[in-house]
Design brief:
This protein has 392 residues and is mainly α. 78% of the residues lie in helices and 4% in strands. The protein is globular, with a radius of gyration of 25 Å. Keywords: Membrane, Transmembrane, Transmembrane helix. This is G-protein coupled receptors family 1 profile domain-containing protein.
């Protein structure tokens, strides 16, 4: 099976797949197409060499350490938010599940960047891994990223109720309803994205020229039979429902929440005898500020990718095979890095803006350190006992 034959079948795979998963995925097929058709470096505002340099720096040196930091932070967040001391707060159900989703997302992203590191030692193995990661794992990345989008929308809705209807928030926002919300969001996203598991597959064959087994990425027959449906469903429907529409709603709700919080703060300053109510109001405002910080980071990090996605939808020149393909590839990598930053930043926000979270984290780390010291001390004592026994 010749490489050029499969490339002819798959030359549009990269841009289409990038479109359904926004800027978080950068297809290897796009790179191959660019290598074959743009060696002189005329694909847009920047040259191919510049685009490759930007992508290499981001994918190999920026995303892996940030993703690793985010993985550790989200795992710690999940442990703390799911613990007995924090689990009693309804909002923490959303935050714990968001930490879980971000953990899965960052794990997949980190694994997808492994080929970049492996390529320095074995390019063929790196390509094989990259092709495998562009099948089911890429769809799982799509599912987790879109679930994270909708969870941010649920957080905004919960804060709207807390800010605009503070007396009814405990009645309307209950643990059971929060659990139902996260389950419903997950089921909806999986249901909408499940069809994309029929998008592509990987086959392995023995390449006599390389004298080893290599992988090749191919469309599945179901996609080839329904290509027009996939293009409309992924490029238009899923993009609008799971990316652009939630972004618009989150932005509107965030502006409304911030405006209402400022109004209430001004109103509270004018009240001199509000003691208990003021304390309760301050607690609500503290939680609101923390959650709005998370949402604002989400907006700042994902707006560039959404704009890039929208431009690629309305202008075919700004795609992996268009006139501005080099610019598209560089911008997609930058937006992908911002997405990783967004999924990794929540842990820092919790530490900076939630005193109880910080206290529990310090206690947890100190207890681990004490246990480690006790273990080492026990080993030292046992070694000393053995030594004294041998001497006697």
């Amino acid at each position: 099976m010749a490489f050029n034959t499969t490339l002819n079948t798959l030359e549009t795979f990269g841009s289409s797949f990038n479109t359904i998963n926004a800027s978080q995925m950068n297809s290897t097929i796009d790179d191959q197409y660019s290598n074959n058709n743009n060696t002189t470096g005329s694909g847009g505002f920047i040259t191919k060499v510049t685009a490759d340099t930007i992508r290499s720096v981001i994918n190999c040196y920026l995303i892996p350490p940030v993703a690793l930091f985010g993985l550790i932070g989200n795992i710690l967040s999940l442990i703390i938010l799911g613990g007995k001391k924090m689990r009693q707060f309804t909002t923490n159900i959303l935050l714990a599940y968001l930490a879980f989703i971000d953990t899965l997302l960052l794990l997949i992203v980190f694994m997808r960047k492994v080929p970049c590191l492996v390529a320095k030692a074995d390019p063929i193995t790196a390509q094989n891994i990259d092709y495998v990661m562009l099948t089911a794992p890429a769809i799982l990345e799509l599912i987790t990223s879109r679930t994270s989008n909708l969870l941010s929308l649920v957080i905004c809705c919960e804060r709207c109720i807390a800010v605009f209807k503070p007396l009814k928030v405990k009645l309307w926002v209950t643990p059971k309803r929060m659990i139902f919300s996260v389950v419903a969001v997950t089921v909806i996203v999986i249901g909408l994205a499940a069809v994309d598991f029929n998008y592509s597959t990987v086959i392995f064959y023995y390449d006599n020229t390389k004298n080893r087994t290599v992988a090749q990425l191919m469309y599945q027959p179901f996609f080839l039979e329904n290509q027009q449906f996939f293009n409309i469903y992924n490029n238009v429907f899923l993009t609008l429902v799971l990316r652009i529409l939630p972004m618009i709603l989150i932005t509107i709700l965030t502006v409304a929440i911030i405006t209402q919080v400022r109004r209430r703060m001004v109103w509270l300053k004018d009240i001199t005898h509000a003691t208990q109510n003021s304390n309760a109001e301050n607690d609500i405002q503290a939680v609101t500020k923390m959650l709005m910080t998370i949402v604002l980071i989400y907006i700042i990090c994902l707006v560039p990718g959404s704009i890039s996605l929208f431009i690629s939808l309305v202008d075919s020149r700004f795609t992996g095979r268009g006139e501005f393909r080099n610019t598209h590839r560089a911008v997609s990598s930058m937006a992908s890095f911002l997405s990783v930053v967004n999924s990794s930043a929540n842990f820092v926000v919790y530490i900076a803006m939630n005193q109880k979270f910080s206290d529990i984290l310090v206690q947890m780390l100190c207890c681990f350190r004490k246990k480690h010291r006790r273990s080492d001390h026990g080993k030292v004592e046992s070694i000393g006992t053995i030594s004294s026994t041998l001497r006697s």
